[in-house]
Amino acid sequence: MLLKIESLTKTFGAATAVDRADILVDKPAMIGVIGRSGAGKSTLLRMINRLTDASSGRILVEGRDVLTLKGAALRAWRRDCAMIFQQFNLVPRLDVVTNVMLGRLNGHSALASAFNVFGEADIRAALGHLERLGIEGHALKRAEALSGGQQQRVAIARALMQNPKFVLADEPIASLDPMNAQVVMDALRRIHEEDGLTVICNLHTLDTARRYCDRVIGMRAGRIVFDGPSELLTEAMAREIYGAGAEFSEASTSTSIGALAPDAALARAASGVSAVG
Ligand SMILES: Nc1ncnc2c1ncn2[C@@H]1O[C@H](COP(=O)(O)OP(=O)(O)OP(=O)(O)O)[C@@H](O)[C@H]1O
């Protein structure tokens, strides 16, 4: 078992953001977490990475409860599960390759980190990740000079520098236009398939989850109300997840990613040229 989440709960005062979530991951997977705003998706992901303290429950990885980890063991866990955020969280004025190498800081001694010392191997690894993501041509630009889709790919490269086992992506495409959203989702799918990483990705929209994820977890008001292969996610179930009435249609949760020509997006990714984002 890669990951076993048992009865994970988070309360904020009287409100329960995540209510006794149980999730089993027995092999590397690409998992989409869907639900309307406030359903508890971010809180769930942040508890896994320990950015938010859980109120109760357990998160078992390799026989240990990550909720009990402290100090070096907690830092090691955070290296194992990289986070990707909606707003990219890069250092805007630093160049792209340095931003990527920051993903290694956890692995260096405090002294080396303080002097910003990166070895040649770090630089090579960072450039390799950028190349794989089609943006090596931007390595020396300041991060703030890149489009949103390019910045999110830099954030993915930074995550890969940690050599993680899990990538937790919290609404990674919510700030992007459909073209850039597709390029970023393609990148996440590839790192799942090629590197065997487990990717858990919060998504607002059902069509994106269906298209990219093998498994979908649907949350409503803190509870997991669906967990299964995306093809079993019926329209009736989608209505239940989104709490919509009979007028519900999938189009209302669509980012229209599917409407794009995939070849155009891939060509752009490969050339490092991206639509405005
Ligand atoms: N720090 C906090 N303090 C108080 N309440 C919070 C806090 N963080 C989240 N909540 C509440 O917990 C619930 C779940 O929030 P969460 O952000 O996890 O939902 P979400 O599904 O990720 O929504 P969104 O898609 O809008 O980010 C919401 O009712 C929210 O208001």
From TrEMBL:
Transport in keyword set: yes
A GO molecular-function annotation: ABC-type phosphonate transporter activity
SUPFAM superfamilies: P-loop containing nucleoside triphosphate hydrolases
Cell cycle in keyword set: no
Pfam families linked to this entry: ABC_tran
Assigned keywords, A-Z: ATP-binding, Cell membrane, Membrane, Nucleotide-binding, Translocase, Transport
Residue span(s) of domain ABC transporter: 3-246
Name assigned to this protein: Phosphonate transport system ATP-binding protein
